[in-house]
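[09:14] KT: can someone run the structure on this one? pasting the chain below
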Amino acid sequence: NPQRAYAEANGQVVMDVENCDRRIPRNSRNWLTQNSKSGYAGGGYVQVLPNTGASVNSGYISTSPEVVCNVSFTATGSYYVWVRGQGDSGNDDSLHAGIDGTGPASADRINIGSGTSWVWKRDTMDGVPATLVVNTPGFHTIHLWMREDGLKVDKLLLRKSSSSTAPSGLGPAESARIRLWGTDMTAPLISGVAVTDLTPSSATTTWTTNELTWSEIVYGSTATTYS
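[09:31] RB: done, structure tokens below
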């Protein structure tokens, strides 16, 4: 189970993609952390390598290298997908996005465009803004898949605002991470405590909790000392 996630707040979540939670290589390619292209945010950016001119326009969910970002949402609805990226040529400048393991047509074929500078883009190759729909509050996964190898991606921004004004420069700061285990404020119930197999130097203690949890035994020769 995931232990942490980016926290959406006020209809927006920002990810430094090199800090996302999982990368899945496929067909001898992967999203690798790089830092040779200056102007990135955080500790680097990711790039699909090796760059041999490959392109995957369909079936990418199971064939393209993938980045997975854990996100905890409070606000549901449609989010516009902004990507800060850079492509050296027209063969290195597009990707697909998705949610919860799906790649909806509303967010496929996002076109960064070729050039020497980092840019923020949200439009697909169909000429419409890329969008993803969050149907329920809580934990979701956001995915990026390679369309063209060689693409460099620095940051990912999901926001409910429909404004067509792109973020400037590095864009907003990376969103906070929350520990998903920390959202349950109700302590587990402990029952069935039993001590068995007593010897002069050992004992076996067992108990039951009503939910998955971490447990710890504190023991010692007095009530105020333990090992």
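[09:33] KT: thanks! The two ends are 31 Å apart (CA to CA).
[09:34] RB: yep, looked fine to me
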